[in-house]
Amino acid sequence: MDRFFYSVIRAPCVCVCRCSPTQKAEIARALKFYTEGKKICGIGDGGNDVGMILESDVGVGIEGKEGM
Questions:
Q1: Which candidate in 12, 25, 57, 63 could, as Cys together with 51 as Cys, close a disulfide (CB 3.0–4.6 Å)?
Q2: Total domain count, the chain
Q3: Span 44-62, pLDDT tens digits
């Protein structure tokens, strides 16, 4: 797992899809840990993104098909 996140934190952006709401929140939490305090922005368009948005430092909800 450490190797994965050491690769991920070098990317300018990380897109997470096809994960459960819990997994999305865990990834946001892990990114904060592995980036040593950098601010994390979580962007989502549905109810399954709420955990990730709440776990992020900046949460953005987009009104989309799922969010209606």
A1: 25
A2: 1
A3: 988 899 999 999 999 999 9
